[in-house]
Specification:
seven-stranded mixed sheet, 24% strand, binds flavin-adenine dinucleotide, single chain, eight-stranded mixed sheet, FAD/NAD(P)-binding domain, alpha/beta, 17 strands
């Protein structure tokens, strides 16, 4: 770029790429600390892929930190426990959540509709924080600044660039991080609506065989989120097929004999409430070697540590990242009296390094747990098959979920 073109670029102190869970929460965290940011989102409006997600206490602590926890609690019911059924259809009974792993007394878990989550976060942001239809196509370095090029030709010059742009993050590519790898498994998930109420207990209903994991969770009295994880090659599923009706038929027919009435729930799903996603993850040792921040650029959420839904922590850990990053960056930027530009750049770098230091082991732990759970879940062999049939594996899984969900990322107060 010529000097003249650089001079014509619009300037923003902090630019966030992506208005998903992590982008909106990071912007809101910074806003609560009095720091302005601009979000660049490629879609024309909020993108709510996936319909709903299960959340644990770690997610609720983060949502409380940015002040939206109670707004969402009003909409979504508290999940009281698990109803787990093993491959032999042996009911294992219900474990009340407070007994799980004996970890917490006030164990909070809800299944929240993504649209409500994103809209609630957006509604708390100052008008103009999000610039829609703004696809970032390249990043350039000029001195202490980054130049962010958009598909529409606009260039934004910034002191701090935060990549919240999901699995296929271009900010992560710019940082030299490796792409997530395929697990060979995929998920079809959807949201079923019952206008007169569904009548299911507020429990996480889970059913697992060696080739399929599926289940459903009520979000509120009228909506049920369901999911089915499977191997497309084993089930001869055409991955190119994005037709919602055949997705519903595929899941319903494969779960026809499953307990818990899952296929009936799947068949009630509206065609615009079902989607398919291949499951990918970042290998833990790649996360150990890669650095998710360099100078004034960092990545958050799926852009930093894409993971499978094996323990339902992708969204929760993205929320944790956002709180920690907002706190570290907020601290670095607001506790200085020196206003010189050079000093500000050093402070941004310090803030991002503090964030990396605080998050590294938590992220490594999560990626390792997700990797091991996935490996065991889909491994063959007599011992593992026995453990699955007796429901032992699922019982352990539930305890692992509870343990990973008990994490506390802290609030936004700056020490
Ligand atoms: C099948 C499945 C089930 C899951 N279930 C759960 C669950 O139960 N609980 C849970 O906690 N997590 C779950 N997850 C994980 C969770 O969905 C993700 O971890 C979470 O959505 C990550 O949020 P994010 O904001 O980092 O990324 P995303 O939600 O992917 O948001 C990225 C945003 O960036 C935008 N963007 C991308 N590229 C650009 C660009 N170049 N320029 C501008 N904008 C761009 C996108 O349009 C998008 O809005 C599940 C994931 C899958 C696949």
């Amino acid at each position: 770029m010529t000097m003249k073109e650089i001079d014509m670029a619009i300037c923003e102190d902090i630019v966030i790429v992506g208005a998903g869970i992590s982008g909106l929460t990071t912007a809101l965290g910074l806003h609560r600390l009095g720091v302005r940011s601009l979000i660049l989102e490629s879609s024309e409006s909020l993108k709510c892929t996936g319909y709903a997600l299960t959340t644990w206490p770690n997610a609720w602590r983060a949502l409380d930190a940015v002040g939206v926890g109670d707004l969402l609690r009003k909409k979504f019911i508290q999940i009281e426990g698990f109803k787990v059924v093993s491959s032999g259809s042996i009911p294992l009974g219900t474990e009340q959540s407070r007994l799980l792993g004996g970890l917490r007394f006030n164990f909070e878990s809800r299944c929240i509709i993504r649209k409500d989550l994103l809209e609630t976060l957006e509604s708390e942001l100052p008008h103009g924080t999000i610039r829609y239809s703004s696809k970032v196509v390249s990043i350039e370095e000029t001195g202490n600044f980054k130049l962010v090029h958009l598909a529409d030709g606009l260039v934004v010059k910034t002191k701090a660039l935060i990549g919240c742009d999901g699995m296929n993050s271009m900010v992560a590519k710019w940082l030299g991080l490796e792409n997530p790898v395929s697990t060979g498994r995929s998920a079809i998930r959807g949201l079923a609506r019952y206008l007169d109420g569904h009548g299911f207990e507020p429990k996480f209903h889970f059913y697992s065989t060696w080739c399929v994991d599926c289940g459903f969770v009520p979000c509120d009295e009228k909506s049920i989120y369901w999911f089915c994880n499977f191997s497309p090659s084993f089930h001869k599923y055409n991955e190119e097929n994005q037709d919602p009706l055949s997705m519903i038929k595929f899941v319903a027919s494969n779960l026809r004999d499953a307990p818990l009435n899952i296929s009936n729930i799947v068949e009630r799903t509206e065609l615009d409430c079902v989607c398919y996603a291949p499951l990918r993850l970042k290998l833990p040792w790649k996360a150990l070697l890669g650095n998710f921040a360099k100078k004034n650029v960092c990545v958050v959420g799926d852009a930093s540590h894409p993971m499978t839904p094996a323990i339902g922590q992708g969204g929760g850990s993205s929320l944790e990242d956002s709180i920690v990053l907002a706190r570290c960056l907020g601290k670095a930027l607001t506790t200085s009296n020196v206003k010189e530009e050079h000093d500000e750049h050093i402070r941004v770098e310090m803030g991002l390094q503090m964030y990396v230091k605080e998050r590294r082991w938590r992220i490594l732990t999560l990626l390792t747990v997700v990797y091991i759970v996935g490996f065991v879940q889909h491994a063959g062999g007599k011992v593992i098959s026995f453990a699955k049939k007796r429901g032992i594996f699922t019982k352990y899984l539930v305890q692992i979920m509870a343990k990973m969900g008990a994490f506390d990322c802290g609030d936004l107060s700056i020490p």
